[in-house]
User: Fold Secreted protein from Streptomyces hokutonensis.
Amino acid sequence: MRTVRRKVVMAMLAVAATVGGLAAPGTASAAGDKFVTLRVCSGSTETVKFFFVGENQYGDWIGSQFWEIAPKGCTTAGGYWWKAGQSVEFHHRKPSTGWRWEPRLISYNDTRDNAVYDLWIG
Assistant:
């Protein structure tokens, strides 16, 4: 009887240790997270004004400042880091179309941490 009781107690301890390990809090940022700065390039002959809304490197949902792209140019939206593998809201305006927005996925596999990631607008 004593042997059976010991086996039951040992099994219960093993289960408790496993469950306790799974319930332990992790770090705020996973080791595999990547964050990028975004650069927007435009093929338009009009000046484009834009900003982003999305998750930054701190896990906060924020909106960025506004930037402008010269006709047929590129602008790096510096000073902001966005999480790769997730979408950002890309808000943009051309004089001929007004304000629009669309989700833009920042590919996790096609970038590296601390990179400049290109987005294009027509």
About this structure: The chain has one domain: 35-121. The first strand starts at residue 35 and ends at 42.
